Each structure stands twice: as C-alpha cells, then as structure tokens.
Amino acid sequence: MPRRMLVTILLAVVVVATVSTVAGVTAPSSSDTSGATTRRRPPTSASTSTTTTTTLPSLVQGAPPGPVIGTDGTAPVVSRVPTTDNVIFLGIDDGLHRDPAVVELLLREKVPVTLFLARDPAGDGRSYFRELVDAGLATVESHTKSHESVRGMPYSVQQDEVCATLDEFTEWFGRRPTLFRPPYGEWDATTRQAAASCGLRAVVMWQGATNDGRLDIVGGHFFPGDVLLLHFRPDLAENLQLVIDRARAEGFKIGRLVDYVGGP
Ligand SMILES: [Zn+2]
Prior knowledge:
7-stranded mixed sheet
C-alpha cells in the first residue's frame, strides 16, 4: 500500500511538472499571438528592432541562423528574420514588368518592399523604381548583374555578378545595397563569401511565394520574420493585394527588411 501511494504521488508530481513545463512553453507564444492584433508597434522604429532580437528563441525555433555578421567572414543566409514582432517582409525580384498599378497600390497602402533587381531592368526602370525609393517605401538591392545562377561558379565570377551593380545602384537610387538575393534561389558557400566581400550583409531567401494568384507559405501561415518572394510580373498588383490582405487577417505588419538585417 505505501508503495502504491508513493507511485501515485510520484506520478502526480510528474504530471504537474509536465503540465507546468508545457504551460511555460506555450504561454508566451499564445499570449504573443493573442496580443498580435492589438500590439501595433511600428516595426520601423529603432527601439523595436533593438528590443526584439533579445527575446526570440521560443518563436523562431527551426528558423535559419540570424543575421550575425562576421562570425566566419561570410554573409548569412536569411529566409526568416529572428524577431518576435508580428512582421513579414516582401522581396520583389527582377524588375522586368513595371506596372504603374503596383506603385499606386504601394503608395496607397504605404507598404515597404525590398527590390532585388538585376542590372538591366534596374537601369531601364530607373524612374519607376525611384518613385518608390523617394517615397521611402523601397530599397533597391543586389540580384546579380546578368541574372545567371551563380551556384557552382568560381569566386571571381560570383564576386562580379553579386557586387558589380552596387556602384551603379548607389548612383541611381541614392543608397548602396546591403542585401543580396540569388537568382532562382541558388547559392553556395562561395556566394556568401562573394556577398561579404562587397559589404552585403545577408543572402536573402524566402519562406513563402506568390504563384498564379495564390500564396504558398512554409507551415501554411505566417511566422514572425518571414520573408516572401514576389516578382515584377503582370499579376504583381494582384499578388501584393493578396499578401497585404492576408497579413492583416493574420495580425501581421509588413516591415522594412533593411531595418532588421540590412545594417546601418
Ligand atoms: Zn530573379
């Protein structure tokens, strides 16, 4: 009898301990989620980006390494920014199709975007992209010179592709790029070296993308810090509206990526 009592007591202790452990793990994230719709901190403020990086582990488990620069001298690869802010980031690529409706939409909604442009469309569309840059809604970042895949290429080739547009982009758009997105999402260790060699602070991938009028995201919904992939194609305005509406419905803001990973 005493033995059974002891077992019962031990079991009770284990159950209580387990429950409190689970509660301890789930409580912060669930309260964070429920507070998401009311917590409207502007993700662009310096104080926000400073404070958020201190309390990230429980919400970003499984996320790629954070934007820690310089540990091995190469640029980190980021597809989900370590943050507890309910914020996502929009990266729009290439720049070939330049629809005025996209500019109107972004100005109206005041949504910040990161433009990963290849050299020729950036040059051809200078005034188009400049309107978004001048409105404070866009930064223009590196997406190679020729839009060739760089994976597997020698360092000298990758360095040229990744870095060659920076001087021109600085002149055209008034700011030196600090981020790189590899064409086709194809990169390797050399890409990270090449990016770091010209001061780029991260190789930016994505957790979700718009395709044929629908949004596909890893896990089926937004996580804090998710970076998305969009393209300057004829359906961009439609895709942007889809993402904006979805973000609002899930209690997420759309942030400026460079405020989180782009450096000073
Ligand atoms: Zn591209």
